Amino acid sequence: MNQGRVVKNNQIAVIYYSASGSTEQLAGAIAEGVDSVAGAHAVSVKISGKDIHEGRYTNDEVMSLLTESRGIVFGSPTYMGGVAAQFKAFADATSELWYRREWLDKVASGFTVGGSPSGEQMSTIQYIQTLAAQHGMHWVAVDALRSEHINRLGASSGLITQSVQGELSVADYETGKALGVRVASLAEKLVSS
Ligand SMILES: Cc1cc2nc3c(=O)[nH]c(=O)nc-3n(C[C@H](O)[C@H](O)[C@H](O)COP(=O)(O)O)c2cc1C
């Protein structure tokens, strides 16, 4: 796995864009889940609009940090039925890494927040899933059955949530933590198998 590159011992990166903070809250929940797994640790990176010039994202430090990680969890708010422009600029910038197959066989997952319970968040997750597939990554789905306590909106493809007046529900937060645990645990299994 990731031959020829230095991959840090079960480091999982959580990279996301957030304008008003709810996607950031969810990123925090995922990182908390990762950190609760023995031997795993999370690094969180917020995509900054300051790294985008004329639509192009550039930050070599961020790209190196992601490449050194064993797994990457991608997050964006749902904007107009898709990822935010800032996330797309970042995703486009990963094309150089794609060409060199730098992220081949890492684990991946995705999360999004919308303002509506059914505000096309699935389109956002499907885009993130496609990005991970292009990089040859192993997609980790949500395994929790829907209830009022976890996976409130009942999606499996990725973590789909809704912010109400800028706040996530406890159930959304718990689903984030569970996804972090699952990504870190599967990343560990993949290298030891
Ligand atoms: C430009 C824009 C477009 C949006 N489009 C959608 C949408 O298509 N579906 C939806 O459910 N919510 C939509 N929202 C609501 C955001 O997804 C929601 O407020 C989310 O919590 C923002 O994430 P953040 O707090 O991390 O910035 C939109 C918000 C903005 C500003």
From TrEMBL:
One of its GO terms (molecular function) is electron transfer activity. SUPFAM superfamilies: Flavoproteins (SSF52218). Its cofactor is FMN. The keyword Flavoprotein applies. GO terms for cellular component: membrane. Residues 12-191 form the Flavodoxin-like domain. Keywords: Flavoprotein, FMN. The keyword Flavoprotein applies. This is Flavodoxin. It comes from Endozoicomonas numazuensis.
